[in-house]
Amino acid sequence: MNSEAARIGLLHNLELWVPDLSTARPRWHWLFGSLGYEQFQSWDNGVSYRLGPTYIVLEQSPALIEGSHQRAEPGSTTSPSTPDPALTLTNWFKTHDDRAGT
Q1: What gap in Å lies between CA 54 and CA 92, rounded to an integer?
Q2: What three-state secondary structure class fits 93?
Q3: DSSP code of residue 87
Q4: Please, which residues have CB within 8 angstroms of residue 19's CB and are 6 or more apart in sequence?
Q5: Among 75, 69, 91, CA closest to 15
Q6: Contact call for residues 59 and 17 (beta carbons, < 8 A)
Q7: Mean pLDDT of residues grouped by 10 in the chain (102 residues)?
Q8: Contacting residues for 25 by C-beta, under 8 A, at least 6 apart
Q9: Integer Cα distance of 69 and 72 in angstroms
Q10: Does domain 3-61+75-100 have CATH number 3.10.180.10?
Q11: What does the domain layout of the chain look like in residue ranges?
Q12: How far apart (Å, rounded) are the C-alpha atoms in residues 59 and 46?
């Protein structure tokens, strides 16, 4: 790995679990596209986007528990470094639905 890549860090892959793929897909698709990612693969419960060696998977997962949040389970959380819940990605999407085409 070259020194520039080590300094800024590289993301190999990211997997995002969502409770409803049909709702989440358009909300994420425009964002990934605006960041330069292109749709790569698609299957019944998911879709992947790729930019160079990096890929992102958006997948409807049966491991999500509807209607509740468990800290140790997958999902959106507010970390101690983000004390304002309005700064979470989930709330950002709720306020930017017009860009997502929904």
Answers
A1: 24
A2: helix
A3: G
A4: 60, 61, 64, 66
A5: 75
A6: yes
A7: 59 88 91 93 94 92 63 50 50 57 46
A8: 47, 58
A9: 9
A10: yes
A11: 3-61+75-100
A12: 4
